[in-house]
């Protein structure tokens, strides 16, 4: 793909794979709107007042159909939006085309190289000479990382005249990031500091991005306020759990069409995502085994009738392996070598380091056979047996399918909209410092409430006496903040 920014007849910038898919994208966006009552409720409630008027929002989050509904909700509330994907395989090209044609600047296509991915990220941040965005929607923290690394490198350059050195790291992706920042310092040695000065804050979508933010807060290096959307109950206990319960089997089936029933499936990690994955595999008839480091999560798995073992115990017997740990080095090449012929190996955690892709790619004599994009068979020379790796070790549900269904993403993204509104409305009040915050419980309950009608639910109303008896207000919040659901 030639990396040249294009413009719509109205002058909006974009780079997508195929603008002729915009009509198809629009039809699917219209279907999604009916399934996303939280976002449409935000449009109805806040749209007329345009509370985000004047706000520039940069987003780095899978450019899918449901994200299109998020982007167009932010636009309906008055914001100007520039967007890229947070994963090289997760864009739905028809969604990207429809949004680029109709509503926001999009830089994303399915199957980006890492170099293209970071070019798109840089374009989404590029609001021209007046600095960067006011607000960021991040998923996994790549935009946040780029700004922090950019500021750090500019300060070092000012101090010592030293430019970042891509050769200083073995990590291929970080090498690209350092190269990008090096180029930008040569062009404008204050670019990232100008971006930082304008920024009001970020709302972060996922567990892994929140971990990065909390590390920065602990080190004292966080440069702007952050709202942790992931830990809204209506996000992590819904998207991570029920979303993965739906989209893991979707990814497995689209990629391999393998019969899940009867197979032995190993789920590494039994947190929110692992619970959803294990439930899906179990209900499809697989014999599920979990690996865990945390005794509480291990005991939870056992209470569901799921054995807990180590990977070493089960590697030669299992048929399907799924990593969900948000940790690194979970399935190594020495594990993969011992697996059955055509065992399926995939990851649904955020990054591509749960599975040892580097070890696999550099294994002497290994033969990679691409069956179709994002489905590869890797054949070991000694045994001539192969394993099937999905989405090159990146998130299988977004690489091999289309991510979670729209309804559950409506819960996640309604939290995103509320977080963006909160950061923007409080931009001059000092309410948010350079720390990581979660949304208050009454807003979490509001997100859930917005989704009940669509499913035909009727809530029971507390009487005044009942409310007093359990020490809550009639209108909520109904639980203390420490309640775990
Ligand atoms: N693909 C998606 O659609 C999607 C959706 C939501 C979250 N995520 C990502 O999925 C990952 C998991 O999120 P989560 O909310 O379930 O996190 P979590 O913290 O609830 O769960 C992770 C679990 O892995 C366990 N673990 C850590 N190291 C381990 C190891 N070496 N072996 C076995 N278990 C180990 C932890 O004890 C924990 O229980 C994150 O990277 C998150 O960003 C992906």
- Please summarize the sheet with the most strands: 7 strands, parallel
Total separate domains: 2
CATH topology of the largest domain: Rossmann fold
Alpha-beta content class: alpha/beta
Mean pLDDT, to the nearest integer, reads 97
Q: What would the principal axes of the Cα set say about the shape? A: globular
Q: Strands of the biggest beta sheet: in what spatial order?
A: 5-4-3-6-7-8-16
Low-confidence region ranges: none
Number of helices, where a helix is a run of at least 4 consecutive DSSP H or I residues: 20
**Which cofactors or ions or other ligands sit in this model?**
nicotinamide-adenine-dinucleotide
CATH architecture of the largest domain: 3-Layer(aba) Sandwich
Describe the structure.
It is a single chain. The chain is an alpha/beta fold and 485 residues long. It folds into two domains: 198 residues, Adenosylhomocysteinase-like (Rossmann fold); 160 residues, Rossmann fold (3-Layer(aba) Sandwich), CATH 3.40.50. It contains 20 helices and 16 strands. Strands 5-4-3-6-7-8-16 form a seven-stranded parallel β-sheet, sandwiched between helices. Strands 10-9-11-12-15-14-13 form a seven-stranded mixed β-sheet. Strand 11, helix 15 and strand 12 form a beta-alpha-beta unit. Helix 1 crosses helix 3, helix 1 packs across helix 4 and helix 2 runs parallel beside helix 3. The chain starts with 5 loop residues before the first strand and ends in a 16-residue tail after the last helix. Bound molecules: nicotinamide-adenine-dinucleotide (NAD). The site of nicotinamide-adenine-dinucleotide has 32 residues, from helix 9, helix 11 and helix 12. The site of nicotinamide-adenine-dinucleotide (NAD) has 32 residues, from helix 9, helix 11 and helix 12.
């Amino acid at each position: 793909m030639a990396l040249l920014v294009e413009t719509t007849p109205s002058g909006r910038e974009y780079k997508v794979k195929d603008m002729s898919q915009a009509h198809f994208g629009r039809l699917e966006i219209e279907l999604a709107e009916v399934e996303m009552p939280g976002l449409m409720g935000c449009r109805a409630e806040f749209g007329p007042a345009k509370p985000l008027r004047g706000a520039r929002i940069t987003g780095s989050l899978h450019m899918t159909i449901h994200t299109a509904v998020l982007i167009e909700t932010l636009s309906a509330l008055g914001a100007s939006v520039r967007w890229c994907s947070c994963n090289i395989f997760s864009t739905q090209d028809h969604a990207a085309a429809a949004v680029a044609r109709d509503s926001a600047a999009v830089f994303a296509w399915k199957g980006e190289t890492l170099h293209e991915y970071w070019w798109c990220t840089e374009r989404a941040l590029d609001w021209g000479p007046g600095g960067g965005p006011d607000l960021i929607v991040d998923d996994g923290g790549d935009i946040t990382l780029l700004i922090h690394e950019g500021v750090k490198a500019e300060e070092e350059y000012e101090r010592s005249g030293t430019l970042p050195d891509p050769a200083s790291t073995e990590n291929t992706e970080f090498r690209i990031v350092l190269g990008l920042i090096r180029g930008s310092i040569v062009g404008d040695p204050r670019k990232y500091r100008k971006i930082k000065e304008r920024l009001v804050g970020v709302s972060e979508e996922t567990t892994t991005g929140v971990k990065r933010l909390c590390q920065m807060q602990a080190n004292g290096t966080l440069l702007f306020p952050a709202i942790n959307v992931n830990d809204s109950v209506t996000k992590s206990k819904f998207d991570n759990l029920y979303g993965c319960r739906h989209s893991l089997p979707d990814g497995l089936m689209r990629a391999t069409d393998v019969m899940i029933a009867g197979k032995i499936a190993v789920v590494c990690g039994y947190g929110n995502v692992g619970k959803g994955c294990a439930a899906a595999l179990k209900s499809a008839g697989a014999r599920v085994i979990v690996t865990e480091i945390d005794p509480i999560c291990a005991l939870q798995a056992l209470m569901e009738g799921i054995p807990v073992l180590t990977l070493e115990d089960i590697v030669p017997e299992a048929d399907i392996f799924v990593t969900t740990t948000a940790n690194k080095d979970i399935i190594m090449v020495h594990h993969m070598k011992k697996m059955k012929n055509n065992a399926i190996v995939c990851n649904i955690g955020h990054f591509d380091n749960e599975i040892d892709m580097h070890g696999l790619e550099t294994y002497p004599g290994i033969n990679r056979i691409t069956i179709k994009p994002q489905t590869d068979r890797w054949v070991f020379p000694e045994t001539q047996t192969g394993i099937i790796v999905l989405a090159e070790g990146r998130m299988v549900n977004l690489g091999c399918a289309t991510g979670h269904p729209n309804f559950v993403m409506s819960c996640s993204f309604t939290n995103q909209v509320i977080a963006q509104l909160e950061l923007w409305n409080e931009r001059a009040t000092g309410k948010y410092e350079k720390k990581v915050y979660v949304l208050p419980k009454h807003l979490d309950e509001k997100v859930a409430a917005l989704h009940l009608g669509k499913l035909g639910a009727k809530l029971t109303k507390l009487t005044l006496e009942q409310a007093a008896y359990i020490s809550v207000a009639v209108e909520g919040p109904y639980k203390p903040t420490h309640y775990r659901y």
